[in-house]
Write a structure and sequence with these properties.
heterodimer, A: 155 residues, alpha/beta, 8-stranded mixed beta sheet, 2 helices, globular, B: 699 residues, 4-stranded antiparallel beta sheet, 13% strand
Amino acid sequence: MLKYVNTGIVFQEIPDEVTLAINISNCPCHCPGCHSHYLWEDQGVPLSPEAIDDFVEKYGSNLTCIAFMGGDNEPRSVDHLAEYIHEEYPQLRVAWYSGRTVISALINKDNFDYIKIGPYIKHLGPLKKPTTNQRLYHRTDEGDFEDITARFWKK
Amino acid sequence: MMEIKNFTITKRDGSQAQFSLDKIMNAIVKAFDSVNEPADLGTISKIISHLDIHDDITVENIQNQVEEALMREGFYHVAKSFILYRQTHSEDRDTLEKMMFLSEYTESVNAATGSKYDANANVEHKNIATLIGELPKSNFIRLNRRLLTDRIKKMYGKELADEYINKLTHHFIYKNDETSLANYCASITMYPWLIGGTTSIGGNSTAPTNLKSFAGGFVNMVFMVSSMLSGACATPEFLMYMNYFIGKEYGLDYWQHPDQQADLSLKKRSIDKVITDYFEQIVYTLNQPTGARNYQAVFWNIAYYDRYYFESIFGDFYFPDGSKPDWDGLSWLQKRFMKWFNKERTKTLLTFPVETMALLTDENGDCKDPEWGEFTAEMYSEGHSFFTYMSNNADSLSSCCRLRNEITDNGFSYTLGAGGVSTGSKSVLTINLNRCIQFAVNHELNYLDYLGSIIDLCHKVQLAYNENLKELQAHGMLPLFDAGYINIGRQYLTIGINGLVEAAEFMGLKITPNDDYLHFVQGILGLIEKYNKKYRTKDVMFNCEMIPAENVGVKHAKWDREDGYVVPRDCYNSYFYVVEDDSLSVIDKFKLHGAPYIEHLTGGSALHMNLEEHLSKQQYLQLLKVAAQEGCNYFTFNIPNTVCNDCGHIDKRYLKECPHCHSKNVDYMTRIIGYLKRVSNFSQARQEEAARRYYAMAD
């Protein structure tokens, strides 16, 4: 079962969206120089569909997007929750920040509107640096995934 | 003759000294000598025998006793001389105190830190002009208290007057702007000026007749009006009138061809260039330090409207030539001004005008005028800093960067002459909620009952203030009212609050969107509103505002701590949340300034949403929607701008290093309270508060 430690309303992670970021624990990536060491441990509270319902109840139409930050140990669970959100709350977009180098084969990409891949590699920098190895993809109306990483590099 | 033993006495500065009979004898002998009255040892001993000296007696007390003893023995001339001698010394001490202040002020870091009475970041420099403004402040405070207590005595008796001074000196309440004699702030109508120039308020200019005389005359008019107010002057018709005069010059459709050449000079200026040159003239002139206001710039505010807000307010407006304001031209001009002003602010630190965007929303929380909703989001995303007022009816105007004033229930109308936009606050009297509530709880009183007595006192004091103001008006001292720039009946008496969050924390409440905190807030604000309604008559209106407390927030925290109250931080919050709390999300903050919390806050409180980075237009659009849905009607986004102290580069972003010369010697422009200023201009304590602020971060 996925667990999360905390959440936040964020603006920079997903361009143009007002996003509820859910920080998922038990991260297997263990990037050297990781900013969120506390997410390495298996801790927090279960991230169930009911938990999603509570978030939507609390923030209602104030949000435009929900982002799963991590969860690479259980891609299938992330996929199920993404599908759940799209079915129950069609007005919300779904994003996934994965630390893997490729998009997991265990998910159905159509359940996501944004997917970020790539571990954090210190000398290449985060998404904001043009030298970054990380990539953010946005699903277009046609269902293709478009690389929008360059959005982070603008002044 | 009393027994001489080792007494200590308390000197004027509070220090202790050995009692000396010689000194008293000397003073008495001198008094006799000064009126050529012979004084033998017997006479002097007799006088001294009347004195009742005890340990720790004050010098003042001894001197009072000497006065009485001289009179009791029949030496009236000597007594008179002694009294005059004391008076001269007391005046000398006042002067000495002023000289001390003078030297402390000149050595302080900046003008706000040096100011003893009402620190204010709107004073950028300290110099001889600001010093001249500071020196008489203590006299103004004394005079204002005297004027007010005399009136209270007449209206309610001595007991209430004493109670006022008692609560004031023990910091249960705070009288704002006590260092000025003028009424506080006003949103004015410029209609009297449009008709008759400034003659009715003592000026010598006639009515503006063209764009040039409008621009020049406007500046003079704002200077004159501001010199008769202690706070801000809002001109909500500024761009509407300017649009009228541009139309007269270049045709109503000027905005459809702004690039057209407009003058025959070698510069071949376009219409757009002519217009922006006037913007430049007006804005730069009004941002100058002003002689009549102790070297402060005038606090100048303007408003923008969407189409529907504009129609609600100015639907009945007619210019003197019988024409109606042209919305299409005004809409273009408003946008032009905002774009110009935003760009100009990357060249110079311009504080004024403080701008408020007034938007009407529909029942879904969407902007009724999508064009202006989008433009608002666009301007925020381009880094422009301004306030937004959102409502589902055109019910309010702000008279300064904090106070909104309800206007509907007064049946404002231009058809009855002028005055649709004239409103404001005559005077603000603030309640220190943290102290009041702790005092009540410590004395096992019901805090709402106790607060009720304080609120009642405040209303009576404000009514007394109002009578004094009416008397000034009756003697022709308030031409702004007589000439119709301000309507006294549409001006509020304002009850301010400070220390709300701190009081709630004392009561053990969590400062998050939760029912207990909401109940607490509503209980207090509802009580104030109850009294506001109770004391309302057809001539007097009250409102309630959470004051920005630029310096009061710091003072209250200091005074309360000194007196042993629970004080969780060095500066009381001017918001419904704890400004340094990083666990609250942006949405939580909108909720905490949402309808249930601000329902009874009739005079408003502007949410300053502190963000570390600028958002995109789409994100701001969504946040406008969040604000509308939560019922947060008055807010601004605050992203500190970076100013390089070395090369002067100004950047809209919050940076640690100058992107131009890479210097790390940078300062920031921020809205600590209402207006945008360099952080280094704020007083020491406020700068520390700014540093503790949590700017919501992305990662």
